[in-house]
Amino acid sequence: NASANIEPGTSLKPVGSEDDNDEPKIFLEWSDDRGKTFNTPIAQSLGREGEYLTDPQWNRLGMARDRVFRLSWNGPVITALNGAFVQAAAVRS
């Protein structure tokens, strides 16, 4: 599991806006070869204006050795990335 502690709900697009394609998104990518290549980004909502309880999380990320994560986001938003968290479990290899 992974989550991003980022300030949500600061989009310039109001709730109920006609164009849902402009909803701001945050993307998680990961690399299993120490950052040489990355997978296809998985998107979560960053929340529209006023949606302050939006909490982007990603589950079922599989497992790998030497995994590197990358976050990116888009849209007309004011952002403050306060932290990112990954819940890892040790397995026997």
In terms of topology, how is this protein built?
Blueprint (H helix, E strand, L loop, with lengths): L1 E5 L18 E7 L10 E4 L11 E2 L9 E6 L7 E6 L7
Antiparallel strand pairs: 1-4, 1-6, 2-3, 2-5
Our Rg estimate from Cα atoms comes to 15 Å
Strand content of the residues, in percent? 25-35%
Between the first and last Cα atoms, what is the distance in angstroms?
20 Å
Look at the helices and sheets and give the structural class: mainly beta
Mean pLDDT, as a whole number? 86
Order of helices and strands: EEEEEE
Please count the beta strands (DSSP E, at least 2 residues each): 6
Low-confidence stretches: none
Overall outline: elongated
Largest sheet: 3 strands, antiparallel
Overall helicity:
under 10%
Strand order of the largest sheet: 4-1-6
